[in-house]
Amino acid sequence: xxxxxxxxxxxxxxxVSMFMIxxxxxxxxRYASVFLSIGCFVAMLLSIRFTIANPGGYVMDLRHIPLIxxxxxxxxxxxxxxxxxxxxxxxxxxxxxGALYAFxxxxxxxxxxxxxxxxxxxxxxxSRRLKIVLYLSFALIAFKEMAFLALKPSMFYSNGGIHFVxxxxxxxxxxxxxxxxVHFTELGMQRVLLQRQLLDVSNKYRNEMRRLQQFIDNTxxxxxxxxxxxxxxxxxxxxxxxxxxxxxNDILHRNFIFFARQMNMHVEENPVTRVMRMGIRHxxxxxxxxxxxxxxxxxxxQLPVExxxxxxxxxxxxxxxxxxKDEVNRMERLSxxxxxxxSITHEIRNPMAVIRGFVQLLNxxxxxxxxxxxxxxxDELDRANAIINxxxxxxxxxxxxKEPCQLNDLLSELKPxxxxxxxxxxxxxxxxxxxxxxxxxMNIKEIKQLLLNLARNGMEAMNDKGVLKIETxxxxxxxxxxxxxxxVGIAPEKLERLFEPFYTTKAKGTGLGLALCLSIVERHxxxxxxxxxxxxxxxxxxxxxxxxxxxx
Length: 552
Prior knowledge:
Elements: H1 2-22, H2 32-49, E1 52-53, E2 59-60, H3 64-73, H4 75-93, H5 97-115, H6 126-151, H7 162-218, E3 221-226, E4 232-235, H8 237-242, H9 248-251, H10 256-262, E5 265-266, H11 271-278, E6 282-288, E7 291-301, E8 308-317, H12 319-365, H13 368-395, E9 403-405, H14 407-425, E10 428-432, E11 440-442, H15 444-461, E12 467-474, E13 478-484, H16 492-495, H17 513-523, E14 526-533, E15 537-545
Parallel strand pairs: 10-12
Antiparallel strand pairs: 1-2, 3-4, 3-8, 5-6, 6-7, 7-8, 9-11, 12-13, 13-15, 14-15
Helix pairs in contact: 1-2, 1-7, 2-3, 2-4, 3-4, 3-7, 4-5, 5-6, 6-7, 12-13, 14-15, 15-17
């Protein structure tokens, strides 16, 4: 009899045991309730299959334990299906009216609990579940006793109350088994919940790491991670592009010095080496690949232990910012020139006009031998006056009057003057004008001054027999002017300062001619660029945007 009872107990513990083995893998936790419900359904059928009746007629049956466990932890659907399966089997077994009444009473007790599973009770605490288990257990025990009394009431009082003791022992066993099953199932569910929380935290961590990785790879910064020995462990997309055609794998696990050389980094000391030696954050503006970068090199702190776990190098391209800064400085210098021109114009030109008048008068009254000296004085006064005029032209900030005209027409008007200058130098001019040329809004006086300045600069840069090429192109959105000489060219380090006021490459230049040209071009919604190769020549390219077009 006790062996049969042990079999019933093992069957009752079957779904709990299988559940504790099954949820060991985290990916299975999402199906924990389903698996437990299936296990309880199988255990209930096995318990019914191996039902035991003692010689006195009492039935040893623990089918209610899987029913309770599955209802508690399987959800509403599981509780409903288990109740239906139990009812079908139980109705087939009932042969006495008392047993039928006991079954109906059990269903009436169970139904409120069944509907309470939607869905708040499913998330209730373990203590409340324990109260419900006790309630259902005592209810089941009471109805089993009622059924037994209805079937054979005389057995309780025969043989000195042995059957009553047996029934009481079974009730205690039933209560102990159900409490043990609930305890271990509750532990399992808590572990499932912890695994789910751990899985959620792991997924969030992976997602955050993925977002961080995407941010590092897609950020418009050079990002390089090095270990504590200076070996590269990770580079982002921007850093990989800087060493093209080398790939990411070609620079990983290489020293940072190799990466710096591949980027043409101009630096006195390797920044990673400096941080490794000093252990503090280092910032520096470097020239990398012909561009200007603001770089930050800092140690990666190892927490919670003090010390460096590696080196982080970040480079921000500030080339455009530097160009804007240079442009602001240039505008400030132009403003200073304007203030100077406005303040000294009347103070200088009037005395100079008086001086020139008297020099000219003395020249007329002087002997022929001295007239050459007076002519030199007047030439220098005229040159000083021309410089003052350049100051005024450069500093003017008024709105110029413009009218529609063709660039080719202005060049045609200036052609005789340009040829005359070229012949005096022993040079020639090759002029190629576009057949079709759109009209531009121009101030004719300023554009002529621009053309003369650029052409004469080209002539002055060439030796005898040089050819000055002047070309116009009619493009879709702009009109382009190209003036190319065969001079000595301009060094790259001088090109950046070419349009600064007072900066000149000529021995007798004032440094205002190209600054004046730039001012004129900007007032006509244009841009001027210079391409020069030392020893070959220089090309000045001026682009004028056509009216109604958005070129820049």
